[in-house]
Amino acid sequence: MALRIRLSRGGAKKRPFYRIVVAEAASPRDGRFVDKLGTYNPMLPTSHPNYLIISQDRLKYWLSVGAKVADRVHRILARVDIMEPFIWNEQTKDSLTEKNPK
């Protein structure tokens, strides 16, 4: 049973509203979930108090149990300083080639 912390979409057409939920990785996006951690409203500015509402103690609990955080949720939580942001280690073809050709 692999658990994932991810977004579940609600709201009307072109007016998205998301619940941050803990669900099994194989379940559908808007399907059954184990626990609701909070809400995320992308239509509001970041400074608005209802932009992101999350229970941090439940988040810490599910992370300690072994639930993985989805990429989009990780970015949202990093934007409001709850988690550390991603560190990208990009490897392009140029960086993989030898710097001093012989």
Description:
This protein has 102 residues and is of the alpha+beta class. It has one domain: S16 Ribosomal Protein, Chain: A (2-Layer Sandwich), CATH 3.30.1320.10. It contains 3 helices and 5 strands. It has helices spanning 56-65, 71-79, 93-96; strands at 3-12, 15-24, 35-40, 52-54, 68-69. The protein has a 5-stranded mixed β-sheet with strand order 4-3-2-1-5. The protein is globular and about 55 Å long. The mean pLDDT is 88.
Offer a quick outline of the entry:
The chain is an alpha+beta fold and 102 residues long. It has helices spanning 56-65, 71-79, 93-96, and strands spanning 3-12, 15-24, 35-40, 52-54, 68-69.
Considering the protein shown, what is the CATH homologous superfamily? Ribosomal protein S16
Low-pLDDT windows of residues: none
Let me know the average pLDDT.
88
Ends apart, CA distance between termini: 52 Å
Strand content: 25-35%
Share of helical residues: 10-25%
SSE class? alpha+beta
Bulk shape: globular
What's the structural blueprint in terms of helices and strands?
Layout (H helix, E strand, L loop, with lengths): L2 E10 L2 E10 L10 E6 L11 E3 L1 H10 L2 E2 L1 H9 L13 H4 L6
Parallel strand pairs: 1-5
Antiparallel strand pairs: 1-2, 2-3, 3-4
